[in-house]
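sanity check both lines:
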Amino acid sequence: MSWTLLADGAAAACFLVGAALTLVAAIGQVRMPDLLSRMHAATKPQVLGTVLVVAGLALRLREPSVLGLLLLVVLLQMATSVVASHMVGRASFRAGQVREDLLVVDDLRDTSAYEEPRGAP
């Protein structure tokens, strides 16, 4: 068994798992009840699915000139997805589009609304 056959098998596994995670993200977009849950479903499995597909592509191509570009794609996907999700979540919270009955912790609520005093006495 050669290492190229092993790398091709690992690439196929990465493609399949990455595609499955991307499908889970798409299903989560449709099935989740509110905006914040949909954002979570869009970012977490989608980024991991993209990373696995790019890793499978790197294992399949095995060219040093392409590996740098694929690494750049992964880094930019990880950076922009997190920032974009955070900004959309904040904007939707400020616009009142978040269902407050589904929130467990509300860190963006006005601090004057707390019943307990904050800080040292």
Notes: The mean pLDDT is 85. Residues 3-98 form one domain.
